[in-house]
Amino acid sequence: MDANIGAMLAVVSSRMVTGHAAAAAPQLDLLMFSSFMSALLTLVLYREYFRSKGYGPALSISAAVTAVLGCMEGAWPMGMVVFVWSGSVFWSWWKTGEKKNLRRAVSAGRWKAESRVSRLFGPRESGHEIWN
After folding, report:
1. Contact indicator for 92, 56 with CB cutoff of 8 Å
2. pLDDT per position as a tens digit, 96-127
3. Residue 52 burial by Cβ neighbours in a 10 Å radius (0-12, 13-18, 19+)
4. Residue 6 has what pLDDT?
5. Low-confidence ranges of the chain (pLDDT < 50)
6. Which of 59, 105, 111, 108 has its CA nearest to residue 86?
7. Are 101 and 55 spatial neighbours (Cβ–Cβ below 8 Å)?
8. Angle 61-38-62 from CA coordinates, rounded to 5°
9. Residue 77: how many CA atoms within 13 Å on its side-chain side?
10. What is the pLDDT of residue 90?
11. Rounded Cα–Cα distance for residues 7 and 12 (Å)
12. How far apart are the C-alpha atoms of 123 and 70, rounded to whole Å?
């Protein structure tokens, strides 16, 4: 019985302060978790975008997913702004010519294999391809 009185006092005191009953915290569902993870990925890729413009396609895709999930959550104004930003990032990546470098590396069939050890200490005569 004491727990019921405490609960009633909490409701009454919240109504006196705000004028209405306190809203319950939203439960974490799959859509909310996916939105959070895509926004976090967008922020990480945005940070890396300034180091290398090769992150442009990944950033634009991540921002587009964030925009779609934002619209599904009901925040469509934020979704539209992020969708325009996604297009802007993709357009700037397309215009810089980074796609040519990516296409050239993929069409060659291999990435240039160079290790940090060989850059620091020079090539080693070990017979292994990674050390040369």
Report:
1. yes
2. 866 555 555 555 554 555 566 666 676 666 55
3. exposed
4. 57
5. 1, 110, 132
6. 59
7. no
8. 10
9. 0
10. 92
11. 9
12. 51
For the chain, give every domain's residue range: 28-110
Side chain identity at residue 109, one-letter code: G
Tokens, residue 127 = 């017979």
Closest by CA to 88, choosing from 48, 61, 66, 60, is: 60
C-alpha triplet 89, 90, 93: angle, nearest 5°:
85
- 8 A C-beta contact, residue 85 and residue 63: yes
Tokens matching residue 95: 């215009």
Token couple for 66: 């964030």
What does the block give as tokens for 25? 């915290």
What are the tokens at 13?
A: 């005191």
The total of other beta-carbon atoms located within 10 Å of residue 109's CB is: 6
Please report the pLDDT score of residue 124 as a whole number.
Answer: 62
And the tokens for 72? 């599904």
Residue 58: closest CA among 98, 104, 106, 117: 98
